[in-house]
Amino acid sequence: MPDMEKIKKKISTDPFAGMLGVRFDEMGEGYAKLSMRVRDDMLNFNGSLHGGVIYSLADIAFSAASNSHGTVAVALHADITYLKAVPPGSTLVATGAEKNKTRRTGLYSITIDDAEGNLIAVFEGVVYRKDQPLF
Q1: What angle do CA 5, 79, 129 make, to 5 degrees?
Q2: Which of 40, 59, 97, 123 could form a disulfide with 110 if both were Cys (CB 3.0 to 4.6 A apart)?
């Protein structure tokens, strides 16, 4: 069984996640729950959250969930569907869950919700597992 505290500590040092202000709230094998507050510098020209920021939050949750087994996992494919605009000041929650795991691949589903539980986006991704430990 992997050392989840050690894995969470390593994954949570991601500099891009830190720049976005992402908090790693929960982690388990094949699972991650992250949150992020929407800042004004994340808005697009229409005044709502830039889609790239939503994608980035989902991708960070995808990475956390897929690497949670202690083996390096790299993205092969990812897809996102945006469902609702996000105003400034909102808090988003990304929940990533493993749907299928083999020795070499994994399928993950990530939902992005706002603090009120409204579904903002749905992300799905596939990883390739390398023969390389995370540490």
Answers
A1: 45
A2: 123
| Phi, psi values for residue 65, rounded to 5° | -65, -40
Single-letter amino acid code for the residue at 18:
G
pTM of the model: 0.97
Say how many CA atoms lie within 13 Å of 114 toward its Cβ. 14
CA angle 29, 66, 41 (to 5 degrees): 115
**Which amino acid appears at position 117 of this protein?**
G
What is the C-alpha to C-alpha distance for residues 86 and 96, in angstroms, rounded to an integer? 19
At residue 27, the pLDDT reads 97
| CB-based contact 107:128 (threshold 8 Å) | no
Tell me the one-letter amino acid at 8. K
Residue with tokens 């956390």: 64
Contact of 98 with 66, CB cutoff 8 Å: yes
Residue 55, pLDDT score: 98
Helix residue ranges per DSSP H, the chain: 4-11, 15-20, 51-67
